[in-house]
Protein 1
Amino acid sequence: TGRTHQIRAHMRFIQHPLVGDEVYGRAASGTRLGLDRPWLHARRLTFAHPADGRKVSVEAAIPEDLRKALNKAGLSLPKDT
């Protein structure tokens, strides 16, 4: 999507390209970790609802492919994720 492209381009601009991003990042590092997509995930998002301004928070578990990539890289997540 446009937002995904914007995030990828911005991360490259600030010299923090995404692992697995074939266009702006480091696709080879993603391949070595078993990823076939950019490493892009939001664990938690909080924002003001556009209609009434109330605070909305959503959470999503780390996808299994990213967990496996972390393991392969010799890293792990904290127990609460």
Note: The chain has a mean pLDDT of 88.
Protein 2
Amino acid sequence: MRFLILLLLALLFASCFPARPVPVSAPDTQTDPPPKHTFSESPPPIISRQASAPARATVLQIAGITFEGVSFDSRDHRLVVADQANGPGSQYADAASAARAHGGVAAVNAGFFTPEGAPLGLVGAAGKFSGAWNSASSLGSGAWYETPSGAMAIARREKLGRGGAAAMRELIQAGPLLVENGSDVRGLEGNKPSIRMMILWDGGTRWWIGRGTPCTLAELGRALAMGQPAGWPTRHALNLDGGRSSDLWISDSISSGPVLRRPPWNRPVRNFLVLVKR
């Protein structure tokens, strides 16, 4: 009897307190970090899909070189070659007259030529060719061209090839290449400062034509690779005929124009690159 009374008292006492919860281990939230993505080779360069920007005159100093020219988008403008079959000065006295004859808004002198006035390299204007493929001289180591579909590019001579060049609608063979794939080209001449003319390309639709104050080719290549004379990184740059051939004209229809940079002692040239609206 006493045992039953003690058992009932024990049960009554236990019911007055809540049961202690059984501790439960927290789930393991640590996981291995996500794997890093790796590439077996470098991914191709990304060409930005930036909005088209109006053509504008630019001037900027980089590493002591003043760059002056015109920046444009190839979706709105294109370059055409104004060549003179009868030699320098036979049709166009300067860049301004070449541009006006083609309805252009800007122009620069373009390819090299011999003392007799013949192109020093291949030249294509509206599918009509003059000169001959320059396979040896550094002054023909690159080319600017426009394909029959209207796309423009700069390429090394060996990459384009003689047959490829002959298929283009517009073409100027010149050189040397100053910047290739975003890096300055090694081995450029470093002892003869001169006024430089050039054409720059971002690898997409942005282009620039213009001049640089006296410098060597090596200095020019380094300045273009490290700076942005047109406001965007230069992926490819081609040297054009400079010195006493240098001639830059930008019309007042271009933002920050007009610009005229042609010393009176300059000589007539064989051909020009003229900027026209599409």
Note: DSSP finds four helices and 17 strands in the chain.
